[in-house]
Amino acid sequence: MEDRKNQIKDLEHKEPEDTPLQKQESKRIQKVESNVRNLWDNFKRTNIRIMGVPEEREQNTENILKGIVTENFPHLVKELDLQVQEVHKTPNKRNPKRTTPRHIIIKITRAKDRERILKAARAKQVVTYKGAPIQLSADLSTETMHARWEWQEIFKVMNSKNLQPKILYPAKLSLRIKGQIKSFTNKKKAKGVYHCQTRII
């Protein structure tokens, strides 16, 4: 009698499996979401996101990027034809009273120029504006940014172990293990491979 009660409880708590039709629909939705994300990221392909620039009342945002390039990458000043198409600051959605400066989004004309600036920023590591440290990054869709952010904890650990991790588009982790470069989209697999190869974590 007790065994039968336990079996009934197990059946009550067992979640029903998705039908083939539901699985197919789920895959279709994921594909549509991925396509929308890629379209949005492609639309932003010439955007640069600038973080950490102090707020000023009379701030000429159009000249900020040129100032950053001149201050940090003088060798690029003559090589790049920086033409700013659009500039705006991100709104304070979460907390309008927060003291941290808003991000500045600058749209330029050529994606190649954006990549050269971001590559130079990664090589320099410490980028400044008027002497204050700032950050430069690609401006991606909210979904892509969130997916990439989820790798940060693993990225920091692997970077501390000199595995040369990189976040690849849209949200894959690439790292070097015993001279070989491996990439992962699944966090558990990345941790598992790292654990097996190094026996550290």
TrEMBL record:
Residue ranges constituting the L1 transposable element RRM domain according to the UniProt record: 45-139
Alphabetized Pfam families for the sequence: Tnp_22_dsRBD (PF17490), Transposase_22 (PF02994)
Compositionally biased intervals (Basic and acidic residues): 1-17
Domain (L1 transposable element dsRBD-like): residue spans on this chain: 143-188
Stored InterPro entries: L1_C (IPR042566), L1_dsRBD (IPR035300), L1_RRM_dom (IPR043636), Transposase_22 (IPR004244)
Superkingdom of the source species: Eukaryota
Region feature (Disordered): 1-28
Family as reported in the entry's similarity comment: Belongs to the transposase 22 family.
PANTHER family reported in the protein's UniProt record: L1 TRANSPOSABLE ELEMENT-RELATED
Name used for this protein in its record: L1 transposable element RRM domain-containing protein
Organism of origin: Pipistrellus kuhlii (Kuhl's pipistrelle)
